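Example record used in the benchmark description.
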Amino acid sequence: MEYLEREDLEENIAIIKIGRSFKDARTPDQLYDCTRAEWRVKLERAQKSDYALCVYDKIVREVYEIDCWMPAEKIVRESFPDLTPIHGRIGFEGKVAPDKIRDKYVGKSVAHLYKWGDANPVRFFFVEE
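Model output (structure tokens):
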């Protein structure tokens, strides 16, 4: 297993652990919808990220290029139409990242980027920090 280290992150990245939602994502659209919405993070901080790494079980499953972040109430998750957005949370609109970016991250472990016991499913890594 190849591990990602901090110095491997050459873009402004949001790493999003989707946990149990991964089991509900049977299609690429469902995986995108599980990754992009309803996170309890500051909008101003999230807006600095250009890419989101979808992580399940410490492994990057997909990478999305972020177009914009917005309040969760404005996001339509077509794969899960019955879900009611949670007020005060945010999500992003985007698309699958170009292969050049995906090839750097998909299938690699982010275990080294988290401290034991980290509870927040979203972590940001910015080039300038």
